[in-house]
Every structure is written in structure tokens, then in C-alpha cells.
Amino acid sequence: MSATVSTQTPVPPKPTRKASIDPEAAQKLEKSLAHRPEKHDLIERNILKDDSVAPALQAAKEKLQRSQLEDKLEHALQARPKPEELVKEGILKENDAPPA
Predict the structure, then answer these.
(1) Cys bridge to 41: 4, 37, 78, 87, which one at CB 3.0-4.6 A?
(2) Residue 68: pLDDT band by 50, 70, 90 thresholds?
(3) Burial class (CB in 10 A: 0-12, 13-18, 19+), 97
(4) Three-class SS string for the chain?
(5) Residue 92 CA to chain centroid, in angstroms?
(6) Would you list the DSSP string of 75-92?
């Protein structure tokens, strides 16, 4: 009878993996994460953007809001009274009015 010869190659032992951070740093990180503010607090403080819109549309939404604000400001500046009108109404003194 013939003996069967094993042709399997031996599997090398897996190397032991060292933790990427020490336990003290991990504990400090866990403590910091436990005290971080909630998402809605960060949104209210304008640190995070409101994600009620799909991320792909976020830039377009911001651009539209900025454009609307610019238009509103332009309209308010156009409706602003002239210095001559303010002098006539007694709100501004004639020597304080900028030259026309």
C-alpha cells in the first residue's frame, strides 16, 4: 500500500495586531465624544448645514438663497430715501447730508 503524501502548504500564523491608539487616548476620545453637541445644536449655530435637501442640491439651494438675498438688498437700497428728502423732512441736517 502506498502512503499518501500531504501536498498542503502550511498556513503561516497570523501576525498579532497592535491597537492603533493606546487605551488612555481611546478613553479620552470616548469622553470627548460623549460631551459633543447634538446635531440640531450645530445646525442652529450655523456650524453644520441643514440637510433637509439632498446633498446634490445643497449648493444650488445656497446659491438660490444668496441670489434672493442680493435681490432683496438691492430692492431695499432702491427704495431708500435720498439725502435731499431726509433734509426736507428734517431727519438729516443740511450740513450732514452727503453731496449729491
Answers:
(1) 37
(2) very high
(3) middle
(4) CCCCCCCCCCCCCCCCCCCCCCHHHHHHHHHHHHCCCCHHHHHHCCCCCCCCCCHHHHHHHHHHHHHHHHHHHHHHHHCCCCHHHHHHCCCCCHHHCCCC
(5) 43
(6) HHHHTSPPHHHHHHTTSS
| CA–CA gap between residue 3 and residue 98 (Å, rounded) | 110
Instruction: List the grid coordinates of 75.
Output: 430692492
Give me the pLDDT at residue 1, please: 52
Q: Which residues contact 98 (CB under 8 A, 6 or more apart)?
A: 83
C-alpha cell at 12: 503561516
**Measured distance CA(61)–CA(41) in Å, rounded:** 21
Q: Which grid cell sits at 85?
A: 428728502
Is the whole-model pTM more than 0.90? no
